[in-house]
Design a protein that fits this description.
The protein is an alpha/beta fold. It has 23 helices and 30 strands.
């Protein structure tokens, strides 16, 4: 009874929450909220999320629930919340209980998070006990997914921090409810946490702790290449202004021209390199801290070897304390590229790095905190006013894609290039971080490890295994070996469209435009310029680009000049060899003439990607690709310098399926070459492709248009197409958080189970 003589009515409620509620300071927030609302009880992490018991006055309980949903910690997000009344328990106080590992596993695992401003201040504050400590973090920042040994609940003993016993000071902060490191599982300091070491390529220790950092900075100033162990793996660092050092890195890594990413200390440094608008700024400084592709300033103080042949620079801010400290010491931008050999997975442990990178790096800046899950840096680009993820890894993975309806547990193995894999459970699809191309044994091993990890981490026993039609893909070959699991095949371009549908929660009917390099079609030919009408039970091929031959097959992907030759041969047949602007020697033409005449190893394709290659070669921009997409990127960069709205003529042949005939456009383009600048021609070509998309959309009669496939990484194409489609009244959807390239295929393969069984 109260002092006023009235009985106080109390109730006991149990609140169950799913969402991003672990590793974000949720339990400390709840403990403080319980005190404010005078509630006794407890809170505990579970495998599925968070459970809270509160006992107190109903009016104050409602305040607790309202504030719980409206005043969350910055990184927290509630997806579902249920409340059950229970019999009185008479709790004496409010406690944070030990986590409970029971039930299924939550899909809501937080990605690795960039350092927060408070922790950055700590490492540069001489009065802080975290001064110059490169592994400083709190509940608002630091590694998450990359250090988790098992699935949720997220507790220290289930992470790579399990081997580091907290000192008394860290223990005190960990237990103090008014400290931002209250229950921060990554808490560590110089007295009890990971230690920095500088090693030579033979593994000999050159320096430790702060001396290692200072010595590494000296090596950078001398033009040396440093392998830096970061959050999700090793990076290779070199002075971004040192042309000779970057050329040495290119030579050692066998990466002659593909642009390198840059890392800078802060936003002011980023603005000196690129032209950054408000949307790019927000993404650059977000907790995900991805590489943001931005327009290069003419005054940017970086070597030409950083990004030859493109007007774009890939820039990211320092996202770990080690980065901040090293960049502050060095005082300038660095190249920070993936720590791997060409086409191999990123290295994550010291022995692996010393073995694979010894002939690339001059020294190794390492530490003794294990990286349990490789995470490359994510890449994003502003396309048509919205940020689009091009490579999804650190900062974004493993955030789930939420579906409107549940699907059976299934696994998808993705494609062969830019591979990712995915699992489906209930209403969530979880896409793995970027794995890469499956061309070597190391990549195949990483691919299989990622599949095993996903199944175990989310405790999923998939009933189906989904793959691409192409039996030659490394991912498909793996699936074919899994005879114990029912498998299904999904056509490549259908999977592209489904991935975008899943991302935006779209349902049929709609028209999907899937343009890319190539993928195996239902008829056994190479598709890549597709218009697919999507319905409740699959798709029909409504239209496609006119096919042409690729002399040499796969060789034509490496050599855009071969795509150009095949394109012109389609128009002029044998007369093509009389044209005087073909970039071949006489002897090469003598070899290629019978190949085309007899169609020997000349697969035919509708590929929009190869059409881009052909035009880039015809304009003299790129005859030989040094990396995937180089010709198309050069053509886009060229087009971006023109403001023209003009386009070339084309025809649509009204067959079933319809054929978009580009011959008139190519002939007009060829006529322009002697008389017009390349920028105007390239822009007219992009506009022509956009007009083709609009013309087919009008014929198809569907109001919803979905754009997917690698060609829609091209901002010039996307912006031209979207503007025309929206002006004509269409609803247009394209990728934002899932890559439009093959990195999204696994998502589409899983979503296909909704329509094809």
């Amino acid at each position: 009874m109260s002092s006023t003589g009235f009985n106080i009515i109390t109730e006991h409620l149990v609140i169950t929450i799913t969402g991003y509620v672990q590793g974000v300071g949720m339990r400390p927030f709840i403990a403080r909220l319980a005190g404010l609302c005078r509630q006794n009880g407890w809170a505990a992490n579970t495998a599925e999320g968070l459970t809270i018991a509160i006992e107190g006055e109903p009016f104050l309980q409602q305040q607790f629930i309202d504030r719980l949903q409206s005043q969350l910690p910055p990184l927290a997000r509630i997806v579902s919340l249920t409340v059950d009344r229970q019999p009185a328990a008479h709790y004496p106080d409010f406690q944070i209980k030990a986590s409970r590992d029971e039930g299924g596993s939550s899909a809501f695992v937080l990605p690795d998070i960039a350092s927060c401003p408070e922790c950055i201040n700590d490492i540069f504050n001489p009065h802080s006990r975290f001064y110059r400590y490169p592994f400083t973090s709190c509940t608002d920042c630091g590694p998450r997914y990359s250090i988790m040994q098992k699935s949720l609940p997220y507790d220290r003993e289930r992470t790579a921090m399990a081997g580091f016993v907290m000192c008394a000071d860290c223990e005190r902060e960990y237990r103090s409810a008014d400290n931002r490191r209250f229950h921060a599982q990554t808490i560590a300091c110089p007295n009890c946490g990971p230690v920095l070491s500088l090693l030579d390529p033979a593994g000999k220790r050159l320096a430790e702790r702060d001396d290692a950092l200072l010595t590494a900075s000296d090596y950078l100033r001398k033009g040396k290449i440093i392998a830096v162990k970061g959050i999700g793996g090793f990076q290779l660092w070199v002075d971004a202004a040192n042309q000779a050092a970057i050329e040495r890195l290119r030579q050692r890594k066998h990466r002659p021209q593909k642009p390198f990413a840059l890392m800078v200390a802060d936003l002011a440094a980023a603005k000196q390199l690129g032209i950054i608008n408000a949307i790019e700024l927000q993404t650059l400084t977000s907790p995900a801290a991805p590489i943001v592709l931005q327009r290069r300033r003419e005054s940017a103080q970086v070597a030409d070897a950083v990004a030859p042949g493109t007007d774009l620079l890939g820039v990211m801010l320092a996202y770990a304390p080690l980065h901040h400290l090293l960049l502050r010491e060095f005082g300038a931008a660095v190249v920070a590229t993936s720590g791997n050999r060409q086409n191999e997975p990123i290295c994550i442990d010291n022995d692996q790095a010393l073995d694979r990178l010894a002939d690339i790096a001059d020294v190794f800046l390492t530490h003794d905190r294990p990286i349990l899950r490789p995470l490359d840096d994510s890449i994003v680009r502003l396309i048509g006013g919205q940020m689009t993820v091009l490579r999804r890894a650190r900062g974004y993975a493993p955030l789930p894609v939420l579906l409107k309806t549940a699907l059976p547990d299934a696994l998808a193995v993705g494609g062969h290039l830019k591979n990712t894999v995915a699992v489906c459970h209930d209403r969530q699809i979880i896409l793995s971080p970027h794995i890469g191309d499956l061309d070597c044994a190391a990549s195949q091993r990483q691919f299989e490890a990622a599949l095993t990890d996903l199944r175990q981490f989310y405790r999923i026993n998939p009933q189906r295994l989904m793959r691409d039609l192409h039996d030659g893909y490394g991912s498909s070959q793996y699936a074919m070996r899994q005879s114990q699991t029912a498998s299904g095949k999904v056509q490549h371009h259908y999977a592209h469209i489904l991935a975008c549908m899943a991302e935006h929660g779209l349902e049929p009917p709609l028209l999907g435009v899937a343009w890319d390099g190539n993928g195996l079609g239902d008829d056994g030919t190479l598709w890549g310029g597709e218009f697919l009408r999507i319905h409740d039970h699959g798709f029909e091929r409504y239209a496609h680009l006119r096919p042409f031959s690729l002399p040499g097959g796969g060789k034509a992907i490496e050599e855009p000049r071969r795509a150009a030759l095949g394109l012109l041969h389609e128009i002029y047949e044998e007369r093509v060899f009389d044209l005087n602007f073909l970039p071949f020697t006489e002897s090469e033409l003598q070899l290629l003439s019978p190949v085309l005449a007899k169609q020997i190893n000349c697969p035919r394709t509708t590929s929009a990607g190869r059409l881009f290659d052909a035009v880039a070669s015809l304009l003299g921009l790129c005859h030989l690709n040094q990396y995937e997409g180089q010709a198309a990127m050069a053509l886009e960069s060229c087009a971006a310098r023109s403001e023209s709205d003009a386009a070339y003529p084309f025809r649509i042949i009204e067959t079933e399926p319809r054929v978009i005939d580009w011959q008139d456009a190519i002939e007009a383009l060829l006529a322009d070459i002697p008389n017009r600048d390349a920028e105007l021609i390239a822009k007219k070509f992009h506009n022509t492709l956009a007009e083709m998309i609009l013309a087919v959309a009008k014929r198809a009669g569907e109001q919803t248009i979905v754009l997917s496939g690698g060609c829609f990484q091209n901002a010039c194409l996307v912006e031209a197409a979207v503007e025309r489609l929206k002006t004509a009244g269409f609803k247009v959807f394209r990728h934002q958080n899932i890559p439009p390239n093959d990195g999204g295929l696994a998502l589409g393969q899983l979503y296909a189970t909704k329509y094809i069984g």
